[in-house]
Amino acid sequence: MALAALVPLLGAWSAATPEVCIVSRHSGELLAGTDFSLDDDPAPRSAAQLARSVRVDVEAGRAPSSSGEGGEVLVETDRVVVRRGDRSSVPPSTRGDTAVEVQVFGLVGAEQVRVRCPGPAVRVQGREIEELGPGWQALRSALGTGSILCSGGPWQVRVAGSPPRPYAGVFSFRPLPPRQPEPGSTAREARARRGSEVIFRTTLSAYVSGVLAAEHAGLGGQAGLALAQVIAHDARVERHPGRPLCDTTHCQAFLGTARPTPEVSQALGLAELPTGRWLPYYRGGDEPWEVRRSIAEVQAALGDMQRFGGSGRFLEVVRSTGVERLPCEPVRAALRLPSCPTDGVVEGETVRIRGRGRGHGLGLDVEAARTSGLNAAALLQRAYGLEVTP
């Protein structure tokens, strides 16, 4: 859907050579077509440069800029189109082009994050546009209370000294509302569920690809297709009232954007899943693990106990007063365990805890899906009871 009418640019276009360049308003990436040169005297530039300049103007609520190179610019809800020649050469927008917002860096805080744009970068504050300096800078100071856009490619982001990660999109400031921690939550859980004042906007395609890489890098085939459909679905489900999804495992792990895999592209070409509920998934598998926790840590999560064990979603805790059956997930989260434990035994001043696989045991078991031989529709039906056309 167009937000503005076609903007005619001065000059004559060659109808003999239709050319089109389509840039995302959200990620700044080239979505379709190819970049091509424009005759812009005295400073020649490309169609992509023009589209990204228009993107900044529209972000600031300004009318798209025009120039003397000739042609047309079309501003759409999700895209900026620069074209010349045959108008029918413009491909339609796709589901993957639509916007997704994510609350980012809530666990570490924006003060621990540094960003760098490999090309021109600006801060938009209301209708004002201010150029940002080159090189690495603290995200919090660069952002202020506005939005920042990078026109030279994805933002490069370092989180608490991590290697750089690509974030193709727009960072914006949005104050957090007051929120009381949920009863029984740990300090880390409270931070994760509170969210972040930094909002990142990108395309659905870049977001799903980023989550897939963070959650299960390298997953392909029918299991990859099924998981990509679930990630895309969950991107539209509310987990923080009135706020976007977070970037932690409370929502979906997101460590930056990525280029779409064939499975992501295929998933976003399918119909949305026929449900409005949150669809959980986990890594699964049967790889054994063993950890030790102090008795004090275990007692803080379970109370006085002699031993415990379980399978799946519940634990049986042996106490001096008898056996109590408890949901496993709160205990797993509090003790930072890879999955729900199969047994826990006191040994000296520590508790030896063992289990198999990874994750909370709810919804789609990704490792089991990978080796099942089932197609994506069958995997979704088995995990969630959804009837999906193959």
Can you offer a commentary on this structure?
The structure is a single chain. It is globular and about 85 Å long. The strands form six sheets. It has a seven-stranded mixed β-sheet with strand order 11-10-13-16-17-8-18. A six-stranded antiparallel β-sheet has the order 20-25-24-21-22-23. Strands 1-6-7-2-3 form a five-stranded antiparallel β-sheet, covered by helices on one side. With 390 residues, it is of the alpha+beta class. It has helices at residues 47-59, 139-143, 187-194, 204-216, 221-234, 262-268, 295-302, 328-335, 366-370, 376-384; strands spanning 7-9, 19-24, 30-33, 37-38, 45-46, 71-75, 79-84, 99-103, 113-116, 121-125, 128-131, 137-138, 147-150, 155-159, 165-167, 170-173, 198-203, 245-246, 281-282, 284-294, 307-311, 314-319, 322-327, 343-347, 350-358, 364-365.
Indicate the topology.
Elements: E1 7-9, E2 19-24, E3 30-33, E4 37-38, E5 45-46, H1 47-59, E6 71-75, E7 79-84, E8 99-103, E9 113-116, E10 121-125, E11 128-131, E12 137-138, H2 139-143, E13 147-150, E14 155-159, E15 165-167, E16 170-173, H3 187-194, E17 198-203, H4 204-216, H5 221-234, E18 245-246, H6 262-268, E19 281-282, E20 284-294, H7 295-302, E21 307-311, E22 314-319, E23 322-327, H8 328-335, E24 343-347, E25 350-358, E26 364-365, H9 366-370, H10 376-384
